[in-house]
């Protein structure tokens, strides 16, 4: 299984067939029976390699199916994302894909699309309080459990752990945290001494980990709910990373996998963002045609360690 790699910002771009090789924020294509189907896709942030891969997978599938895909970057701003989805609705898109900044805040815009019969696909993160045609996401609860089991193994099933949480209000953070909590409960020799949000951001991961080390200098394990925060934590730990302190991340990003190879990151629960983007477009096209789609699609995850990291590169 390959978990590959990686920018754009605010404004939406729709690429014509001649422009498909460029690096803009949207993609379209011209064959395979897509007809005049236009899909809008709002991504939470393109400042994170994981979501760049998700976008790339969506663009590739849109080209393959011959549909127009307009991609916008919400820049981790929930209100900006609401405006983007509202714009897609007013533009009469045939379907909308949303990768929510905030699973709760996305609901009103999703409801507005639903009222005018525009199907919405939630990608990577669910939408709370609104009906979507499909939610396609990694099995984050299972992934959280895998992270707990791997971290416990690397720690010798004893020691103290801090958790770097993702953006509050996101289903990904909630589910990964829930899975980790369930998984780590099987190891009574390990105590979780602190949990703190770092918003899935590398710089915030560095800052939060630096602060946590002041109050918990003897910590021996870190679970970061994504690789970006894990990489920030590794920087804060310095020479301790991979030695006295074991760090496990989540996503299997290119930088995360490099850290696994180097030994500073003990493991990463690897997702398949390109596949997730492809499946979101598949569902959007089917829903736009009035076809029935599964309510939930879970994309499998797998733990990447130094022993098997070559499988993911």
From TrEMBL:
Q: Signal peptide location in the record? A: 1-19
The family database entries (SUPFAM superfamilies) matched by this protein are listed as:
Periplasmic binding protein-like I (SSF53822)
Q: Which residues form the Periplasmic binding protein domain?
A: 39-291
Q: Which GO terms describe its molecular function?
A: carbohydrate binding
Q: Where in the cell is it found?
A: Cell envelope
The cellular component terms of Gene Ontology attached to this UniProt record, alphabetical and capped at eight, are: cell envelope
| UniProt keyword list | Signal
Q: What is its main location?
A: other
Is Transport one of the keywords?
no
Q: Does the keyword NADP apply?
A: no
Query: PANTHER family annotated for this entry?
Result: D-ALLOSE-BINDING PERIPLASMIC PROTEIN-RELATED (PTHR46847:SF1)
The record's comment on protein family reads: Belongs to the bacterial solute-binding protein 2 family.
Under which name does UniProt file this protein?
A: Ribose transport system substrate-binding protein
Species name: Nonomuraea pusilla
């Amino acid at each position: 299984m390959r978990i590959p790699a990686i920018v754009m910002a605010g404004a939406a771009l729709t690429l014509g067939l001649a422009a498909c090789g460029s690096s803009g924020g949207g993609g379209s294509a011209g064959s395979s029976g897509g007809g005049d189907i236009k899909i809008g896709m709002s991504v939470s942030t393109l400042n994170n390699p994981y979501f760049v891969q998700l976008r790339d997978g969506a663009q590739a599938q849109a080209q393959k199916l011959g549909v127009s895909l307009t991609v916008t970057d919400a820049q981790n701003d929930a209100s900006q994302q609401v405006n983007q989805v509202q714009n897609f609705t007013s533009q009469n898109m045939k379907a909308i894909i949303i990768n929510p900044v905030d699973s709760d805040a996305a609901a009103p815009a999703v409801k507005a699309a639903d009222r005018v019969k525009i199907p919405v696909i939630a990608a990577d993160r669910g939408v709370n309080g609104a009906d979507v045609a499909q939610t396609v996401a990694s099995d984050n609860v299972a992934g959280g459990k895998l992270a707990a089991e791997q971290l416990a193994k690397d720690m010798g099933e004893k020691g103290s752990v801090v958790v770097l949480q993702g953006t509050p209000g996101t289903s990904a953070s909630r589910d990964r945290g829930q899975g980790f909590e369930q998984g780590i409960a099987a190891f009574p020799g390990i105590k979780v001494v602190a949990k703190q949000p770092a918003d899935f951001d590398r710089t915030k991961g560095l800052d939060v980990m630096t602060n946590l080390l002041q109050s918990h200098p003897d910590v021996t394990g870190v679970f970061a709910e994504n690789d970006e925060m894990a990489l920030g934590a590794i920087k804060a730990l310095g020479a301790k990373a991979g030695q006295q302190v074991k760090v496990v991340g989540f996503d299997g990003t290119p930088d995360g996998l490099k850290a696994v190879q180097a030994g500073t990151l003990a493991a990463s629960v690897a997702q398949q963002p390109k596949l997730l983007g492809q499946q979101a477009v598949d569902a959007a096209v089917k829903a736009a045609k009035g076809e029935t789609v599964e309510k939930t699609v879970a994309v499998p995850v797998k733990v990447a360690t130094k022993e098997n990291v070559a499988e993911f590169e």
